[in-house]
Amino acid sequence: MRVLLVLDICTVAVTVAIVMLSVFAADIQASPLDATGKTTTLLYPILYTTLAFTLLLVSPRHIRTSRSLQLLLAGLVAQIVPFVMWTPLLLRGTFAEGTWLDVVWMVSLVLIAAGAMLPDDTPVVSLDHQVQGVGAIAPLATGVSGGMLCCSGGSRRRGTRSNRS
User: Fold this and answer.
1) Cα dihedral sign for 68, 70, 72, 78?
2) CB under 8 A, 24+ apart: contacts of 51-60
3) How many H-runs (helices) and E-runs (strands) does the chain carry?
């Protein structure tokens, strides 16, 4: 389960990076910034967009029922807007402080903080009811053992033997 989640997150991150690099390709090439400046400028929209889309991998039922997850998601999505809008300005060296982008960025930080301060209202699920919990060990062991017996015993029943010299 965790391997699939990691693969999903990596897929989201690579897709977001490809899209952002494609969108800002002309600005990247024309930018007076050095490689470090370009990299850090691009990492903000890439990482925050990846975080927002990764949060969407959480069960929709949990997002619908959890006010803290809703505020966190709203804050992350709200941060994407200024970071995407800032990127060409930063790459060109024309960014000026005090614009509406700063206001949106501050509001998004407040949303994230509010989500963190709310009590966690996500229902706690007992380990016995989770797939990776104790209840999965017996069926998994039985299935693997049965599969191994079927595969290894099949050639002996037919009378075929492999003699290697």
Assistant:
1) negative
2) 51/76, 52/76, 52/77, 52/79, 52/80, 53/12, 53/16, 54/8, 54/9, 54/12, 57/5, 57/8, 57/9, 57/12
3) 7, 0
What type of residue sits at position 49? T
What's the whole-number mean pLDDT along residues 9-31? 88
The whole-number pLDDT of residue 119 equals: 77
Tokens representing residue 69 in the block: 């997850």
49 and 80 Cβ atoms separated by less than 8 Å:
yes
- Amino acid letter for position 13: A
Token representation of residue 22: 């494609």
* Inter-residue contact 134 to 128 (CB < 8 Å): yes
In contact, 69 and 122? CB cutoff 8 Å: yes
pTM here is 0.64
pLDDT in tens, 99-154: 898 999 899 999 999 988 887 665 555 444 433 433 434 444 444 454 444 444 44
Q: Do 40 and 86 touch, CB atoms closer than 8 A?
A: no
Euclidean distance between CA atoms 52 and 73, whole angstroms: 6
